[in-house]
Specification:
single chain, 266 residues, mainly alpha, 0% strand, elongated
Length: 266
Amino acid sequence: MKSKTINLGVLAVLFLLSGNTSFSQYTSDETKNPCISKNDEVSALEPMSHNHNEEINPQVPALSDYHEVIYQIWHNGWPNKDYELLKSLYPEAEKGFNNLTQVKMTGILQDKQAKWDDGVKQLGKYLQDYKTAIDKNDNKALLDAAEKLHSQYEQLVRLIRPVIKELDEFHKVLYVLYHYDYPDYNYEEIKQDVAELSKKMNELNATQLPERMESLQKKFEKRRADLSSAMKNLENTVNLGNNKDAISKAIEEMHSKYQSLESVFD
C-alpha cells in the first residue's frame, strides 16, 4: 500500500514537470504574472468585463518622448533665437517624428486613428520646413517652422487628451458598453453601464466650458442637451425590460449623439 502511494506521488510530479498542465502557458517567466490573451483558451482567465483600465486610460509613449525635444525648441531655442541650438535639435526631432508615424491608436483612442495620422502628416510637413530653413540658413524661416512645429505638437496632445474631464469620464463608461457589453448583448451588464452613464451624464450636464472655449458654448450646450435626451431615452428603454431591438436602437442613437458632442472640439 505504501509503495502504491509513493508511485502515485511520483507520477503526479512527473505529470506536472511534463508541461502538460494548462497553467504553465499563462505565466511569464520574466514577470511571473498571468499573461492574458484574447484566444479562447484563456478566456476564463480574462478580467471581468468592466476591468478595462489599460483600454480606457491608454498611453502614447512616443508623444510623451517627443515633448523633450519640443520643449527645447519652444522654450529655449525659439524665444532666445538660439539658431545653433535649433539646428542641433533637428536630428532628435526627426527621430521622434519617425516614432510618431508608427503609433497605432488602441482602446478608447482607436476611433481617432485617422485624425492622428492626419495630424502626424501635418507635423511632418512642418518638420520638413524646419529642415529646409536649416539647409538655406534662413533664420526667420527656422523660427516660423519651429513655432508651427510646436503648435502642431500641441494639436496631437489635445487629440488624445480629454478637452473636458466629465466628457472623458462619460466616454470611458460608453466605451465598455459600446465595445463589450452591447456587442455581446449582456443585458445585466448593459443595465449597469446605463446606470453609470446616467450618473456621468448628470456630471457632464453640470460642467462649464473654460473661458478660452467661449465661442463653442452654444454649440456645446445644444449637442449636450441632445445627448442628455438620448441618454434618458436609453435609460427608460432599458428599465422597461429586456427588449434587444429597442435597446440596441437606443444605444446607437445615444452613441451617435455622443460623437456629435465630441466633434464640437475638433
